[in-house]
Design a protein that fits this description.
By secondary structure, the chain is mostly beta strands. Helices cover 2% and strands 35% of the residues. The radius of gyration is 22 Å and the shape is globular.
Length: 562
């Protein structure tokens, strides 16, 4: 047997330099600071942060495109991202990002470490950046990235190998690069960063590999690490009594924060949803409620400390992450928070203290258990015996996956993309091994007997209308001041619905399924609706019958004709 000295492979080729795109963007982000993001609603022509504003409503007051003229909507431009990449394959990548637009420049991320700057008027590429992601990164649920953040002349993104990076917004050149997760343990990064004050805040992915989820804050100027908030308490910390007293279950407990949080400057709290416990389906190895998994958690943004929590699914054995958006709104003089959970229930909380205001189901079929109106949880069906298959609704992708609901303050309604599909789980105990999937079951999602909808609810949990779809709805909704709701389907259709009645007013076939988040902006007085289109990701978890569907990679912008 022979040995050889280690050979340094050197730096990876910068693929961004091979594109022929070496432009310079105008300095539109140089003066974009916390105060402007705080007042994002006063700049409706821009979409400056992930949800459009800190409140997570995914609402724009733009109304040039409205119920009267939306039938004339037509494609204005298209950007082809391409499917190139050494890791991304046809069955793993998806175009899941939300584009950011500031004064005519669009910034958008893709799979495999891509970031692009585009002319928001024409879709012309200005620059591109490609992060060198190692081949051996462990990814649970697709090679995806959900977006960027911008501030103080920089573009911020996370990478598949759990780095948070800052790029020069004018040139795309890297300014700083910090590691915030252990890729060897199965941690990764998919979240869109959030700028709050002088910090960039990101969460970790990798709960299916038995890691301990956390939220991190970095100085946006130099990348200095400010704080880390773990979402599974260690022995002796509040909530640690919800984990086994002996053993290491808490160290591999999950509760990752893999979706962007929302923020209220008056409470100074960041509202974040947490992921499933690990292993997902084998609860016997982690007896207890398993805090703070499957919870809505309020974090002091200055200290990085949990102030209150509300657990939606205690001792989860169905893979019901509570990572979905926390929509902030006011009702009856109270500060409220709305959350559509994977477990099929719509929660409304008082966001000052986490107290429950109301809870109601938002999907027709719920068999895993029941939650009373006062929040009492009763499990009914779950995989509790080795090798014994158990069927339940909703399946592990939930009645609503990560894709976002929206809220219109104009109508007072929430618009939620609903997935009504079941699954069968068979418990299979596995020994924990670092960076190896730690599910605790074999899972088969139903291939038929499924449906979906865009459903409108008021803050009291009353369903006002339902637009029925042939397939589960696997993409976010967008609400606008033109009394419109936009929603894409897995089969490629992009729809505009009347926000007050649910009537379908317009449809366009985009050529690939939707699993992303549409947004809207305007340039030179012209309103655009933009949507990334690229089916894929964890399709076997929510719609396995479409694993072989066309995987596009286009960003399409629509506008009214001249």
């Amino acid at each position: 047997m022979t040995t050889a000295d280690y050979v340094d492979a050197g730096e990876a080729i910068d693929q961004g330099t091979l594109s022929g795109k070496h432009g310079t963007a105008p300095p539109v982000v140089s003066d974009l600071d916390y105060e402007r993001i705080l007042n994002a609603s006063s700049e409706p022509h821009n979409w400056m942060t992930y949800y459009g504003a800190y409140n997570g409503q995914r609402y724009s007051s733009l109304d040039q495109i409205n119920t009267e003229n939306v039938k004339r909507l037509t494609p204005a431009w298209m950007f082809q991202a391409g499917t190139s990449g050494m890791i991304a394959g046809a069955s793993t990548y998806a175009f899941e990002a939300t584009p950011i637009v500031v004064d005519g420049v669009m910034f958008v991320s893709g799979w495999d470490g891509w970031v692009w700057a585009l002319d928001a008027r024409s879709g012309e590429e200005i620059w591109r950046y490609k992060h060198a992601v190692p081949f051996d990164v462990s990814l649970c649920c697709g090679n995806v990235n959900r977006g960027v953040a911008v501030a103080k002349g920089k573009v911020f993104a996370v990478t598949g190998n759990a780095h948070v990076i800052a790029l020069d917004a004018e040139t795309g050149r890297k300014v700083w690069d910090k590691t915030y997760g252990d890729v060897r343990a199965g941690e990764s990064g998919t979240v869109a960063p959030l700028i709050v004050k002088d910090m960039v805040i990101v969460g970790s992915s990798g709960g299916e590999f038995g890691v301990r989820g956390h939220l991190d804050a970095f100085d946006l100027e130099n990348g200095e690490h400010r704080w880390r908030c773990y979402m599974v308490p260690k022995p002796g910390e509040p909530g640690s009594d919800t984990w086994p007293a002996d053993g290491e279950a808490w160290q591999r407990g999950g509760a990752n924060c893999w979706l962007t949080g929302t923020f209220d400057p008056e409470t100074n709290l960041l509202y974040v949803g947490t992921g499933n416990p690990a292993p997902d389906f084998d609860g016997e190895v982690r007896e207890g409620d398993n805090l703070y998994t499957d919870s809505i958690v309020a974090v002091d943004v200055d200290q990085g400390q949990i102030r209150w929590h509300y657990q939606c699914t205690p001792h989860d054995v169905w893979d019901y992450d509570s990572i979905a958006e926390c929509i902030l709104f006011e009702s009856g003089g109270r500060k409220m928070l709305g959350h559509f959970d994977k477990n099929g229930y719509f929660f409304v909380l008082d966001r000052t203290d986490g107290s429950l205001v109301q809870i109601t189901p938002f999907v027709d079929r719920i068999t895993w258990g029941a939650i009373t109106r006062d929040g009492q949880v009763t499990p009914k069906v779950y995989p509790d015996k080795e090798g014994d298959p158990v069927h339940f609704y909703p399946g592990p992708a939930g009645a609503k996956e990560w894709t976002h609901a929206s809220y219109s303050p104009k109508t007072g309604l929430f618009y939620v993309p609903v997935q009504d599909v079941g699954a069968t789980a068979t418990r299979r105990r596995r020994e924990f091994k670092e960076s190896i999937p730690y599910w605790g079951a074999g899972v088969n999602v139903d291939l038929d007997n499924m449906t979906g909808s865009v459903s409108a609810f008021d803050a009291n949990g009353e369903e006002k209308w339902r637009w029925r779809a042939r397939l589960p709805m696997c993409a976010s909704t967008l609400a606008t001041g033109g009394d419109l709701v936009f929603a894409g389907e897995p089969s490629g259709e992009f729809n505009a619905l009347d926000a007050r009645s649910g009537e379908q007013l317009w449809q366009f076939q985009c050529g690939s399924g939707h699993h992303s988040s549409p947004m809207t902006y305007s340039v030179d007085g012209k309103q655009y609706i933009a949507v990334p289109v690229g089916w894929g990701g964890w399709a076997e978890g929510f719609l396995p019958g479409m694993l072989g569907a066309g995987h596009g990679s286009a960003l399409i912008a629509f506008a009214l004709p001249e």
